[in-house]
Amino acid sequence: MLHVAIIVHRLAPLRTGNYWLRAIAECWVNSGVRVSVVSDPRARIEADLAILHVDLTVTPKDYLACVQRCAVTVNGAVSDISKRAISAHLLRREDRYEGPVIVKTDRNCAGFPEARVANTNWMSGKPGTVDETALHYYLDEMDLRAARQRRYGSPRAFLDYRVFDSISDIPAAVWDDNELVVERFLPERINGRYCIRTWLFFGDQDRHAIFYSHDPIIKSHNVVESERLSEVPDELRQMRRNLKFDFGKFDYTMLDGRPILFDANRTPTIGNFPKDRYLPLAQSLANGIGFFLPNAPTVEPQWPASPEPTGNSGRKEA
After folding, report:
1. Which residue ranges make up each domain of the chain?
2. Are 188 and 233 a contacting pair, CB within 8 Å?
3. pLDDT-wise least confident of 21-35, 132-146, 224-238
4. Helices 112-119 + 132-152 axis angle, to 10
């Protein structure tokens, strides 16, 4: 029996959050693959395939070392998905740029995964000991809240995307805040509507879609229409190779015929969709295991195909 090990942070287990990998793993189990979840980075991994699924912007070194002890890995080389590591369109204070700009957090998902680790059971089970990663994020989170209160008058300032007409409109405190980045705002519009494109993939299996909205900052609740796309731009595929992603979700726009990647997520979530909507896509993605393990069993469809969700339930930026 083939064995797949999924490596997670001990304070961000796979059972919490509606992760795509959880749905995919259920498909593997139903097809006869053994799946285990490993939360101790010191554990010895004896598996045919190890998948790194630590839901933090920067993966701690001990978890990276853990997954790399397995000969075949998924996302074993993807350690940092911060905006500074992913974006090719960041701006500096001294840059001369004409056009709208957007302020974001450097951390993925506004730093909420780190906040969750910081605020959820950061004390370990053994009296007198502390989980060092959780303690780091706990102290960092307290410092961030205090700094935002001092700089902006609110501890939650700039945790949501803010668009400015010009780089000169950016508050001076933003440039001094290492947790924030300033990026060119490069939206895509089709027939007067804003749109965002999403590429969700596992190995050689994927789904490609476009979402439309009347708002420049696209969220699940303001999407008015979506449709499947066919070919993924070659340049986007090259970005995936450069970033060494085996599994994940890329959000991007097209400008002058070229893809503008602004988010790369290695722990994508499904959103609040019923099982009959997400299962067909999960089954299709699950067959991507054959890209890494050619002798893996094929996942057979259980339910007929239906309209498929391809993005997160949270924020999307056009």
Report:
1. 3-74, 90-184, 188-292
2. no
3. 132-146
4. 120
